[in-house]
Specification:
single chain, about 90 residues, alpha+beta, YefM-like fold, 2 domains, elongated
Length: about 90
């Protein structure tokens, strides 16, 4: 996920924050900031972070659904849509 161009010393970020922020916003790629040569922090554009969190949430929901289905708690899609259709019709009297 990270390339060497994404890794920077914290002191470089502090000295050139404006350039780093511009790159973060333009590329939407995170940066790894190092302290004493060791990875210490990851910084990222807020919209890219939000997108990543939304994706992780969707994947967690999918994982939960697959696990429930594998335990026999799910139902065939046709049956689920039929039930959903009935609920919508009942709620909106269509």
């Amino acid at each position: 996920m990270f390339t060497t161009s994404d890794i920077h010393p914290l002191t470089d970020f502090q000295r050139n924050a404006k350039d780093h922020v511009k790159r973060l916003k333009d590329t939407k790629r995170p940066e790894v900031l190092t302290i004493n040569g060791k990875p210490s922090l990851v910084i990222q554009d807020a919209s890219a972070y939000e997108e990543m969190v939304d994706l992780l949430d969707s994947l967690q929901q999918l994982k939960t659904a697959v696990e429930a289905y594998n335990r026999g708690e799910g139902q065939p899609i046709e049956e689920a849509f039929s039930i959903l259709d009935e609920r919508i019709k009942a709620k909106y009297k269509t």
